[in-house]
Amino acid sequence: MRAGEQLPPLEIPVTRTLIVAGAIASRDYQDVHHDAELARQKGSPDVFMNILTTNGLVGRYITDHFGPTAVLRKVAIRLGAPNYPGDTMVLTGRIEAVDGDTATVRVVGANALGRHVTGTVTVTVPGEEGRP
Questions:
Q1: Which of 17, 33, 91, 106 is most solvent-facing, going by the fewest CB within 10 Å?
Q2: How many helices (H) and strands (E) does the chain have?
């Protein structure tokens, strides 16, 4: 781990199943996350991903990169453009700072409409302190 290091991108196909399953798993029963017709009545072209699903995908991105011993200490995200079915979200990251075995990673998730999510994740990776 070193400041400035880029994480490899992760492409996530945004499927209707991912959107609905993520909403159900996080107990977010708002109709805009599972009912396309009601979402359209509220001005959206389709159902869209909720923030809790996005938060989980950001966490997955970090732990996939840093490995099974990684511990998420803080995840702070902000949503932008919606994730609609049929799109692809590409997560990218850059290590901003390292303090011992803890890193702060800047994360961006973009889709065809623009930036879906931006934020920072603080992650501890036991045993990384002092490694080149």
A1: 17
A2: 3, 5
**C-alpha torsion angle, residues 15, 16, 22, 25 (rounded to 10):** -140
CA distance readout (Å), 1 to 4, 7, 53, 105: 9, 10, 27, 10
Kindly give the pairing relationship between strand 114-124 and strand 102-111: antiparallel
pTM: 0.93
Write the pLDDT tens digit of every residue in 45-54. Answer: 999 999 999 9
Q: Residue written as tokens 């991903």?
A: 49
Spatial distance between the Cα atoms of 21 and 58, rounded to a whole number of angstroms = 16
